[in-house]
Specification:
6 helices; mainly alpha
């Protein structure tokens, strides 16, 4: 994996962490049913559940970066493509949700950043001849 792709991956993980902070500050766990449900599964206090889930997500992203991605493990390409797809979808859905609602929804400010970095990562992976993994 190229250095540019590794940097883009780390930037995407850090952008997701910022996105999670925006969602927390604006109480996504009270506004969006899936976030409410998942947060409630983790802890009785949805705020705590939301923090635990998102801290786990950030930790997973950092583990992926400092493990497989940084060291060029065979799994690095698939992991990077999965994160790019997940975060492109996350950013897109937040933007569409806000447009449909006709106003701000938690996560909107950082959603374009997620989408942009995810597209940069996908482009870097594609440039390196690392096409998206196919289903076997």
């Amino acid at each position: 994996m190229s250095r540019a792709a590794r940097v883009a991956f780390l930037a995407l993980v850090l952008a997701q962490a910022c996105h999670s902070v925006e969602e927390y500050r604006n109480r996504l766990y009270d506004v969006l049913a899936p976030a409410r449900y998942v947060s409630g599964l983790i802890a009785e206090d949805r705020r705590v559940g939301f923090v635990i889930f998102n801290a786990g997500l950030a930790a997973l992203g950092l583990w992926c970066f400092f493990g497989p991605i940084r060291h060029g493990r065979p799994s690095a390409r698939a992991i990077a493509w999965a994160w790019a797809a997940l975060e492109a979808a996350n950013g897109s859905v937040h933007i569409l949700w806000s447009l449909a609602a006709g106003g701000y929804r938690p996560g909107l400010f950082t959603a374009p950043v997620l989408l942009a970095i995810a597209l940069v990562l996908a482009r870097q992976l594609g440039r390196a001849g690392e096409s998206a993994p196919t289903a076997a």
